[in-house]
Write a structure and sequence with these properties.
Blueprint: H1 7-12, H2 17-26, H3 38-51, H4 56-64, H5 81-90, H6 94-109, E1 126-136, E2 145-147, E3 150-160, E4 165-173, H7 178-182, E5 192-195, H8 202-210, E6 214-218, E7 225-230, E8 239-247, H9 250-255, E9 260-267, E10 272-278, H10 285-294, H11 296-304, H12 310-314, H13 319-338, E11 367-370
Parallel strand pairs: 1-5, 5-6
Antiparallel strand pairs: 1-3, 2-3, 3-4, 4-11, 6-10, 7-8, 8-9, 9-10
Helix pairs in contact: 3-4
């Protein structure tokens, strides 16, 4: 007889029971518990994410329909709605945060998440910085007020291009400025940070330059500068111009007194010029252009992620309620890589249209995770 494991069971194999029990003991998650194990809670909420369940009733009834198969998932019976609700409200969310980072670090060590697709000769750490807005219903979530009739929260993400997984995630109110978040980030020397034009701040760039951090971004159309030197252009490339410049604006000169590099690249697909700004003077113009093109990976990360819906957030309480949308995104990204070839697709998951990426900003009850 050929035995096959369901997709759900294969996914749970990446969360070893001994490792999970050790984390539950560390956070005292089952202190005073009377039979309802934290592992069962985790299985139930993971089922909620996979099946896109929108209520406690859907979670419990969905598991109850598979009563004969639950033993293979390590649980004896489906939980009651009140029991699951109480556990979500009172058990520490830090347990599941620890579980996420422990699993991700293990997958990274085993190179299970894949590697950088674009091959560069340099050894610098390459990171992308961007944000996306998660729309919420303002009537249900008045604390997430964004506009007059619209609510939302914003996820600020630093993407590591070694495996295209986030190194840092910060959830804020949707009105929070992108630059204000970037000002609080700390990077190691020789790191290359690539971002779009919304993060242009010469004072921030000046501080990064003093710390030995490189950046690649788009130059503002109204930027005032003078050309210090014209660099030699590579042959048979789409490089239109490569210049060493110095900012001439009154405040810009104070914020960034050093020289910068302005590179103009012709995009034959969109038939337009892309003007890049960087403080890296040693790399070739073609390499700088390829670095900025690599920034598109963070847009694909937002597009391919499965963001939680407002009803998903209602299942939780406290800090875990704010974490839920990004947990859904990160789980979806990891799930696609650690279980790429299921033996048997016995899953109730239905299709879910990802949120449209955006770039706006703000914060009140901010929860941050950093590696």
């Amino acid at each position: 007889m050929v035995q096959v494991a369901s997709l759900f069971n294969q996914l749970l194999d990446h969360f070893p029971k001994l490792e999970f029990d050790a984390l539950a003991l560390k956070h005292k998650a089952e202190k005073g518990a009377k039979g309802f194990a934290t592992r069962t809670q985790f299985v139930a909420m993971l089922f909620c994410q996979l099946a896109r369940a929108e209520s406690l009733r859907e979670i419990c009834n969905g598991l109850a329909c598979s009563q004969g198969k639950l033993i293979h998932l390590g649980i004896s019976q489906a939980p009651n709605k009140s029991t699951l609700s109480y556990a979500n409200q009172h058990r520490p969310a830090a347990l599941f945060e620890d579980l996420f980072w422990t699993t991700m670090n293990r997958c990274r060590e085993q190179q299970a998440l894949g590697g950088r697709k674009a091959k560069f000769r340099f050894k610098n750490k390459l990171l992308s910085l961007d944000s996306t807005t998660i729309t919420l219903c303002l009537e249900l979530f008045p604390w997430a007020k964004f506009r007059r009739a619209k609510g939302g929260v914003k996820a600020h993400v630093v993407l590591d291009h070694d495996d295209y997984m986030p190194e840092y995630v910060l959830l804020t109110e949707a009105r929070r400025s992108d630059v204000s978040v970037a000002q609080k980030l700390v990077f190691n020397p020789d790191t290359i940070v690539v971002m779009d034009r919304g993060y242009n701040d010469y004072a921030l760039f000046g501080r990064w330059a003093q710390q030995g951090i490189y950046f690649v971004t788009r130059l503002k159309e109204n930027a005032a500068y003078e050309v210090v030197e014209e660099c030699q252009l590579p042959q048979n490339r789409n490089i239109v111009s490569d210049q060493i410049i110095r900012l001439t604006g009154e405040q810009a000169k104070k914020d960034y007194p050093l020289v910068l590099r302005r590179i103009v690249i012709w995009d034959p697909i969109q038939e337009r010029e892309i003007v890049l700004l960087t403080n890296h003077l040693a790399f070739g113009a073609t390499t700088i252009g390829a670095i900025y093109k690599e920034r598109w990976k963070i847009e694909l990360f937002f597009e391919n992620s499965t963001w939680g819906t407002p009803l998903d957030v209602m299942i939780f309480r406290g800090s875990i309620a704010l974490n839920r949308p990004v947990v859904g995104s990160l789980d979806a990204c990891v799930r696609q890589r650690i279980a790429p070839r299921p033996l048997c697709a016995e899953s109730r998951a239905r299709s879910h249209k990802p949120a449209t990426p955006a770039t706006v900003s703000t914060e009140s009850t901010a929860v941050q995770w950093s590696v």
